[in-house]
Write a structure and sequence with these properties.
about 220 residues; alpha+beta; Aminopeptidase; 8-stranded mixed sheet; 7 helices; 8 strands
Length: about 220
């Protein structure tokens, strides 16, 4: 089965919220349908998803709930309670999301998450590669991010791709006051960085296969 990497659309927001809340259960304030929609219209922001055709068992489960769900909707103002487009049916199952902002010559990663059931399958790593490649296309010189100081697994992935720890933001996370590690790459255009990126990308493909159809190769 092939995955598709593409830009996030309004129809993806309900599933994106599921993934975000599963990956970051204590995050506060929590993202909402409205905040995600605003981000998709932000000219500085780029959001992408990894999708695959919806699986039979998921479709079956949705079908079982469909009748009750639509009866429930008639009792409420759909726009008020669910947001515009919130109940649209998707034929794709989103397994990962990522987003970043372009600020002058810097691409700052705002989110990167996969479904819990799809972890350890190279999806998050492939999203990171995609962000780096898109950032370079958009003429960013470096990619930066913050990671929880306790999230050693994420830090190890970023370090694998050349991110270096350059500072700490004290009490950055409002849910528990945890510090954030600031990480950044060297120049994306340097031959050393690009050589390392291509080697890692090939290693990823060798391990996981060429499973991705890239629909974000042309960015604005």
């Amino acid at each position: 089965m092939r995955y598709i990497i593409r830009g996030m659309q309004d129809k993806d927001i309900p599933q994106a919220l599921e993934i975000d809340r599963e990956a970051f259960p204590t995050q506060w304030p929590r993202p909402s349908y409205t905040s995600f929609k605003q981000e998709l219209r932000n000219r500085l922001a780029c959001y992408i998803v990894v999708t695959k055709p919806i699986e039979n068992e998921i479709a079956a489960r949705n079908s079982e709930n469909k009748g009750f769900f639509h009866k429930l909707l008639h009792l409420f103002d759909q726009e008020r309670f669910f947001g515009e487009g919130m109940i649209s049916q998707s034929k794709e199952y989103i397994v990962g999301i990522a987003g970043f902002w372009i600020m002058v010559d810097e691409a700052h990663i705002t989110t990167l998450a996969t479904r819990y059931s799809c972890r350890r399958q190279g999806i998050g790593e492939r999203l990171l590669v995609q962000i780096i490649e898109m950032a370079a296309q958009l003429h960013a010189d470096v990619v930066t991010l913050e990671a929880r100081i306790s999230n050693k697994h994420a830090q190890a992935l970023y370090e694998k791709y050349g991110f270096q720890k350059v500072g700490v933001r004290r009490a950055y996370y409002t849910d528990n006051g945890e510090d954030a590690v600031i990480m950044t790459t060297d120049s994306l255009t340097s031959s050393a960085f690009q050589s390392r990126l291509q080697q890692l990308k090939q290693a990823h493909q060798h391990r996981w296969g060429v499973l991705y159809v890239n629909e974000t190769s042309k960015v604005a």
